[in-house]
Amino acid sequence: MERGKFKRTPEMNRRMSVIMKNRVMSLEHKSKLKLFKKGESGFKGRKHSEKSKKLNSESNLGINNPFYGKQHTKEVKKIISEAQKRTEHKKGKDSPNWRENKKSKLKLQIRYSEKYKKWRLSIFKRDNFTCQICKKKRIPLNVDHLKPFAKIIKENNIDNLEKALNCEELWNTVNARTLCIDCHRKTENFGNSKLNR
Ligand SMILES: [Zn+2]
Predict the structure, then answer these.
(1) Is 92 inside a domain boundary?
(2) Are residues 103 and 155 in the same domain?
(3) Domain residues for 145?
(4) How many domains does the chain have?
(5) What pLDDT, on the 0 to 100 scale, is given for residue 156?
(6) Bigger pLDDT: 6 vs 139
(7) How remote is the CA of residue 194 from the centroid of ligand 1, in Å?
């Protein structure tokens, strides 16, 4: 059928829109895309014109798609399932990010704890909301740990919030001072722990 001469009936339009709504990119399509990106398809090095891109995308939708209503062969299914296995991410303790995530999660838990907020405010009050280096009252103010927060956590084997809340060294106000953000950035420990901010 020549393109452009065919008119859809309202009934067909309705069916098409249902099909379009339920359409997801098939796995076969995805794996073909992957091959294409790798340059293994026969189309390597060539480019579709804007017009042909549009025609391609229109002609392969729903009932116009040659794959519509068909099923994958066993062979294709095997290829797809192997491709999926490769992309599956390692989860939990197998993930290289797991330990780091756990550590930063604990830091956030501490930071958002009531105890931390009160403790931080008590440092500000003690220092009269004044930077202990430049003596300016600047906003925003930070609490700087003379001994890095991360070091205290490590040395006291703190691995959960409860241990953190009960760790005396962590909440020792002698170990903390008020700094403005500029002076804080200049300290050696800045960046070691976002908790200091
Ligand atoms: Zn300052």
Answers:
(1) no
(2) yes
(3) 98-196
(4) 2
(5) 95
(6) 139
(7) 18
Q: Which tens digits make up the pLDDT trace of 109-125? A: 999 999 999 999 999 99
pLDDT in the model for residue 37? 60
Are 148 and 170 within one domain?
yes
Q: How many angstroms does the Cα of residue 197 sit away from the middle of ligand 1?
A: 13
Residue 112 Cα to ligand 1 middle (Å): 25
- How many angstroms from the chain centroid is the CA of residue 146? 32
Mean pLDDT of 160-179: 95
Q: Quote the tokens at residue 35.
A: 């091959």
* Single residue among 39, 61, 87 that ends a domain in this structure: 87
- 82 and 117 fall within a common domain: no
- List the one residue out of 140, 153, 141, 139 whose CA is nearest residue 192: 153
Domain assignment present for residue 59? The answer is yes
Distance from the CA of 134 to the center of ligand 1, in angstroms? Answer: 4
CA of 30 to the centre of ligand 1 (A): 55
Whole-angstrom CA distances from 11 to 16, 28, 169 are 9, 29, 74
Residue 131: per-residue pLDDT:
96
Q: Is 142 helix (H, G, I), strand (E, B) or coil?
A: strand
Residue 160 pLDDT > 50, yes or no?
A: yes
